[in-house]
Amino acid sequence: MTAPQRLTDRKREAIIQAAIAEFRANGFDITSMDKIAATAGVSKRTVYNHFPSKEELFAEILNQLWARVTAEQETSYHHDQPLREQMRLMLKAKLQMLGDDNFLDLARVAIAATIHSPERAQNMVARMGAREEGLTVWIRAAQADGRLKQVAPEFAAQQIQGMLKSFAFWPQISMGLPALSEEMQNTVVESALDMFLACYQC
């Protein structure tokens, strides 16, 4: 990669980080491209060269949020390994992501903006729904292998992830609580596994 390309990438990342900070501090509607440019230390023209509108810049933030959400969801199902061990790895990875400061920043921006604009929320949900999470795929494979009961995989995946988020996402987002300790993460994961497997394992 050439030096100018690296500089362009650095400026783009600076713009995204500045936008996250401004959106968090002031909300979507009040935040201006001028202020984002100033915070990023670049010209307004540079901002518009990367992102033609504030909406497109916000969409890029949502894309990064979704990329972080799905990055850990690539675990393949293994028919010769215990279900609990396979699920434990996926849930621990999920908790790590939920405790990431950058992820929480992006989530706060997305949630605050979508509350004030239902159509924006609908677009985000539609974009997310177009890509199926790895846990859903894993559950479907375990069902096909006869090891989990037949229930809608999307429902079961949302159910167990909801158990995690009630401890390791919503309290941090809504009340500013600290991330879970490693001991508490283990407690939450094992409890969620107990309930999930008691309900769905064949």
TrEMBL record:
DNA-binding region spans which residues? 32-51
Keywords in alphabetical order, please.
DNA-binding, Transcription, Transcription regulation
Specify the HTH tetR-type domain's residue ranges: 9-69
Q: List, alphabetically, the Gene3D superfamilies matched.
A: Homeodomain-like, Tetracycline Repressor, domain 2
GO molecular function, one example? transcription cis-regulatory region binding
PANTHER family, sorted: HTH-TYPE TRANSCRIPTIONAL REGULATOR RUTR, TRANSCRIPTIONAL REGULATOR TETR FAMILY
Question: Under what name is this protein listed?
Answer: TetR family transcriptional regulator
